[in-house]
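User: For my dataset I need records formatted as: sequence, then structure tokens, nothing else. Please produce one.
Assistant:
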Amino acid sequence: MTTTVAYADIAGLAGTDLGWSDWLEVTQSRVDLFADATDDHQWIHVDPERAKDGPFGGPIAHGYLSLSLTVKFWTELLEVTGVTTKVNYGLDKVRFVSPVKVGARVRMNAVVAEVTEVRGGYQLAVDQTIEVDGGDKPAVVARGLYRFSA
């Protein structure tokens, strides 16, 4: 569910749990496209037959593919109205806690940890957790930085 706030109210978001995004299935096609985009064709990602005998019993998504899904999930969780610019400013910390097997469903929780006034707007530090459906540990834990200007 998307939380919608006006730019004027963004400073009050600190501590807000934005909830969970929708589930997304990580398909072999998505993994293959990511491999093509990054030139990372390691067999553990793109060779399902060989990966069956690998350490995870099948192919897994690239860690950076799992991390890149934060962009999609973030846009599902927060909409700020009255802004001229929205920028993914970077990351403070990232951990790839557990692999995402091809065919698994993932989703993200986001908690606004801090809101800081910066030149021209606000920066949100957001604690993001990507979980795997049925998993006992998250796939990715990251603190994302997002900037909004009016």
